[in-house]
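Hey, can you fold this?
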Amino acid sequence: MAEPVTMPQMGFDMREATIVRWLKREGDAVTIGEPIAEVETDKAIVELESPAEGILLAITANEGALVPVDGVLAHVGMLGEPRPASGPTQPLAPAPRVSPVAQRIATERGVDTTAVTRTGPQGQVTKQDVLDAAGNAAPAPASIRAGFPPRTPNADGKIVLGPMGEAIARRTQATIRDVPHIYFTVTVDMTTALDFRREINRTHDGTTRVSLNDIIIKAATLTLLKYPVFNSTYAGDHLIVHPYVNIGVAIALSQGLMVPAILNCERKSLGEIAEGAKDLADRATNGTLRQAEYSGTFTVSNLGMFGVDSFTSIIVAPQVAVLSVSAVKPTPVVVNHEIVVRQIMSVTIGVDHRAANGAEAAQFLAAFKRLLEEPTLLGS
């Protein structure tokens, strides 16, 4: 029997998304997990994957359709199976004239969207339209690491949040209201970890250098395997513990915050995590994330590059914990009754108190701290 392809919920507050284009046509063979369409959310263009193997029997949502979560987009069945009776639908709501991703890129590159050639469905301004108007210039890498110009009001004194900003506002407000946060902080001596990183990069044969954040992600992964309660989803009277570790990485862009995930970190070496993190950041900037990368099970938010001493983060529901990582700074500390200067970093874990208690959080931080202070325990 034909299996419906529905609009997945890619993000806690996602309500709908627009069909940008179909990558497969009716009658094409598809496999499980194969990209069959591109859809655009408030934050990115994402490849929609087939939930089944077979033939794409029918497409029921046109390019340009704004489809709600769980809305039927197509049907996949077996060769020779009758085509479902329903034909292609019209857009459920008018498609935005400027797509959210196109607007973000236009803002970053100073492109006037009213003056570009529109090639999208129903006259929509697409990401590619903006790139063509901007001469396909690469975005400034400073948008992630070194910040971006401060937002300023327009002529009427307003700072428009935009689709991404509105989505962030809805999500954070709902999370703070519904999730009881508790926070715990430890300081970590990163002196040995910094030496470890230098040695890794000296001998590493990959193209991507290992960053301190990659080491933190590796340590978080190993700690989550030991304390799986923090790698779970709250579900009322029980927790759903995930068999994989998908580490969400908070990435700040000029239009807001994205938290895509490095998938299956429990299987990855330190070098593979570094490669995955770089690729994820590049595609988050370009708005080309994959559907599965919205399925983080734990989040690391690092503001160390901005010199922040300490901060707390809002949990990315339905996850149950988030790790906030601050700057590494030379600090006088007492070691063996003597004052010495060590490289010290502050780390704070935010926990959903419905899922875990303070003692469990303290154990997690102790194990995490040990891995960073004895980095040879991380493996390669």
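Oh, and this one too while you're at it.
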Amino acid sequence: MSIVKTVMYIYNKCIVIIKGDFVSNIIDYIKWRGDLSFEQDGLNNLDMLILARLSYLPLETIVPKSFDESISVEEASYEFYIREMQDDVFWKKDPGFLKVVGKSERFKNLRLSASKCYMHRDSMIQFYALTIDLGGGKRCISFRGTDNTLVGWQEGLSYYSLDTLPSQHKALEYLESVAETYGGEFYLAGHSKGGNLAIYSAVSCSEETRGKIISVYNFDGPGVNEEVIRSKSFGAVRDKLKTFVPQSSVFGMMLEHDEEFSIIKSSKKSFMQHDIYSWEVAPTDFLYLDERTNSSYFINNTLNTLVDDMTPNEMNEFIDAVFKVMESSDKKTVNGLQRQWYKSYAKMLRSLVTLDKEERKLIFSTFAKAFKSAGKNIRKKEKD
């Protein structure tokens, strides 16, 4: 039986009454508070997630590449629908998100510019960023995380085998260019890999640029390696870092975190909590929890054990072999693999059989190590 809930929020003399069996997310926040300008109600954590999400939309051909030209969020949303780009998104709720943002008084007049995209299979790079003018000499640089492309997923997994990623270098170049061109102060924000790019660029940029950074928002993105954490520049930005993860976070727990992080309540399970539309909200902030779930610790410990059992070169060769199989499907995106999945998987199975003997052996041995690592963590949990 469905339980009907009635919730009343009172904020700034505004009463919001919601009735029904519901989970409120970021889109609901825009509907509740989207009529208020930033002058009336200043930037909050939910606003920063919205700004981070804008770079996930396929706006590469809509937002000007130039630093001297710009387009409003409302105009970008209109162009998105006129060009019928709804099928180009990664998450199915993204089109509805953009429509609501484009109509809201709070966001529709924000100006988007400096759209920069790099995508190259051989260089294993997937990077996109745009800059959002917030007015008053302040801007937000929004970094896209791992997108729908197989190249993006391959680069994302390479956190475990490479000291730095190609997209991290592009993020640093982008930040320095924007800071030099526009002046003023900046927020940096990103979801998933985008959050990591925000942290990396803030830590690695020049001291002059770092002084212009107000805050760095990392929404369920990987941390950084120990060498970065020990650096003087990381210490210089630690107090500016704001990290948010759902209670069963997997991706956000990759690598090392030395900063404090907030735990958001999600309506989904396990890996699917990476979906920002599952993150529960109140009128002006997320709903928070005190602890991560046991499954988050379990998966994180299992992955760390697996990585410790492999050399960076072995991990890199494993990732290359897996994506060689995936690319045999003739699909270039994750969504492409899911459409007519039976045809894609049949091609991948044939490719697995024809792989080089050593590559095939590496794939099977790595999965065996993963199961062994999981077993160790299960036994350890039982003892505890």
